[in-house]
């Protein structure tokens, strides 16, 4: 397939998956700083190299998207069976296929929607769409960039589809909250073209690598393989259906830090700090800050406050020996499972972030989301002082009060 494009891009030979895997161990160092994230996103996207480096980590403000070669494949994600987005979805894929001659991937469940038959011009596009099934088909190295249509859940879904390198993600706000979806759909053609031409800032949203290790006995010859899941928002440990308090031990780099007695614990990324964590009383952290947030859920203690730890540490979560019940863990609200005595959950920062494309820049997008979605620091403005009238009244009132309240009890001079 030949792609017609009228822009120029500097091409560089992309690193192979094997080379990336070999470099990962060198890059993943245990330190106070976050592991340096990979610079390549999908087959042809990467961060433009810049000399402004701080401790071998590129200055976040200078992170901009560039391409090895013109992107040819795009994954379009929308919420399944959401009729309100169908018109926008049809319009977008029609433009990508016919006008931009791109290969478009969509989830097979999306095309099962019977309401698509109402869009007559979609029939000519449907035959040219590539389909996949989440959890079954591997999209590694097949997608150049991603377009999300909907709310924040579509970005979380995109993250779950790529458990290693994630292609650049462009998210359009067509859902309810839209904290992670900065683009408006009105002029989508112009905005997508800016991305294809490499005119876009990036926010590297760190993810957490979560590893579940199950207890095995000496007689158990078939050792259970560890489960590894990457999450964009948070991993939540709670007491599940049990009426008893959770009793959870928390370790940091092998050292026991504290025991959590309460409803549970939230371990979140800076991106996830504005999700479940902020509802549980945590602070909000800009997504470019290399950190991990630990937030208790309804702790049975007046002094257990949320804490922020360096992104490079490894957290271990396990049931305390005195725990009366199992603990339940979920990853970005999915894959919920029980952890018993002897099971452990290890959490650290992954080297595979989600490169989220900015509508404006890292700072403007984030503060706009705080204001529009969470109404951060919204209050009525204090009225301005009328200096000529208010200050005159204030000074005269003060003098009258002093005269009225002044009683000199000293004896008169003789």
TrEMBL record:
It comes from Papilio polytes (Common mormon). Residues 403-414 have a biased composition (Basic and acidic residues). Belongs to the NAD kinase family. This is NAD(+) kinase. It holds the Pfam family NAD_kinase_C. Residues 16-35, 389-414 are annotated as: Disordered. HAMAP family: NAD_kinase. It is an enzyme of class 2 (transferase). One of its GO terms (biological process) is NADP+ biosynthetic process. Keywords: Kinase, NAD, NADP, Transferase. The keyword NADP applies. One of its GO terms (molecular function) is NAD+ kinase activity. Its EC number is 2.7.1.23. SUPFAM superfamilies: NAD kinase/diacylglycerol kinase-like (SSF111331). The keyword Lipoprotein does not apply. InterPro entries: ATP-NAD_kinase_N, ATP-NAD_kinase_PpnK-typ_C, NAD/diacylglycerol_kinase_sf, NADK.
